[in-house]
Amino acid sequence: MKIKFILKNVIAIIALTLITTFSSFADMVEQNVIFNNGQLKFGGTLALPDTVNQYPALVLVTGSGLQNRDEEIFGFKIFKQISDYLVQQGYAVFRYDDRGIGESKNEHISSDSITMFDYANDAYSAFTTLKSHKNIDKNNSKLIIPKSQKETNSKSGLLLGLKCIDELGLGCNYRTLWISSSYGKIMPIVNIKDLVVPRKSGFWKVGVKKVWEKGVKKDIVWSEILGNNKTSTIKYRNISGCSSEILFVGEEYISMDDRKVYNDDDGDQRFESGDFSVLPLDNFNGNKMDFSKAFGDDAGSRLKYSADLYLKKMNLSKNKIDENKLQTNWSVDRRSGRWMLRGRIPYGDFDVMYAAPTILTDYDDLYPSFDVIKKEIPDAVDAYTSPNRDFIVVLTETKLKIYSLNNKKIGKLDREFDLKNGETAVMSQWLLGSYVDKWNKLIKNMKKN
């Protein structure tokens, strides 16, 4: 993949060199510009024909791989050459360092964690900043991006997993909604039974099977790899005396609440608080995820501190807890537009004062903030923003609502979808660009089968 990218740029360099003769442009100026995307700072260069007039602006966005503002390869500064030529044609041109390199190298950003979602948001932040410059004609300014990046900015899709209590109130039912947008148009919502989970190995399905055990009805969780592999088998997770409720599913992990189930003296089925568990999807019959071992000693300390804070709030500070059990008795939960971590001790459940790591939740940004969303949509209880910020999904108690996003503001209501009673989200998996078309085909085939 990298070789193809380099060859592509070498060809572009040769073509540009053959058709373009660079001449001096005496009045051309270059300015160093700093802009922000959230808490991150970025550095770039704005090239102008002069500082007197206003000019239409072009923002150059790099292709694959980590690149500096000049998209320098083998010492050849591709974007610098393109910029010089475009300035001579009467354009203002802005090029900037990708996050993680040059003046955009923020201390708390690892290049391994950067996604296409991040690059798309960076480009829009650069463009927004540029349009406020005094020498820029904002009405005639554009982003110049590769075709693949253009698709990334214009197409997005969400697999939203939902959970509701079943008809008898003895377990849960699950389903997946496929919500997608292409160049500003929201496509029809596709409704699929069970949870459809996109993974590196392909699509999986996760759900529950209703079984009877010693006179009580319970849910046991199952998973299955989808596709043409006829040898694929369904895996079950069955804990004696417990009914499992799915709280969260990510690309690699699943979070559950294993509730104790029994019949009381009158023969009525009852549930008692059991244990939380977070497990790898590849082996959900294995060992639970240990909080400290997974996220570090500092994270483990925060889990313990959160438990102590809860005990203090409940006037139970003298009560002791099993610290070893605490490290595996936690879960992922959804509240007010964010995935959060919850812990459990014998005295109740509590919020963990530690942000849900991306290895669990992947993309979980929300824009605008949930407070802003609530002001405009008072009945909102949850919300999801597409990574390229072209639409927002809002959940109320009874409806799923899709709004357009215009200039980072909530636009018109585009589509509504009825929710079942008490239905809440347990999964949100986003993707961008050409993958939206691929997933559309795969999901339509799932629906047919």
Low-confidence stretches: 1-24
Q: What oligomerization state is this entry in? A: single chain
Number of domains: 2
The Cα radius of gyration reads 26 Å
Give the structural class: alpha+beta
Shape: elongated
Helix content: 10-25%
Please outline the major beta sheet: 5 strands, mixed
Question: How many strand elements?
Answer: 26
What do these coordinates show?
This protein is elongated. The chain folds into two domains: 2-145, Alpha/Beta hydrolase fold, catalytic domain (Rossmann fold), CATH 3.40.50.1820; 155-448, no CATH class. The protein is an alpha+beta fold and 449 residues long. The protein has helices spanning 2-19, 78-88, 116-131, 147-154, 291-295, 297-313, 323-326, 358-361, 370-376, 435-448; strands at residues 29-37, 40-48, 57-60, 72-73, 76-77, 92-96, 142-144, 155-165, 172-182, 185-186, 190-193, 195-199, 202-213, 216-225, 235-237, 242-249, 253-263, 269-280, 330-335, 338-345, 348-351, 382-385, 391-395, 399-406, 409-418, 424-432. It starts with a helix and ends with a helix. It is 23% helix and 39% strand. It has ten helices and 26 strands. Strand 8 and strand 9 form a beta hairpin.
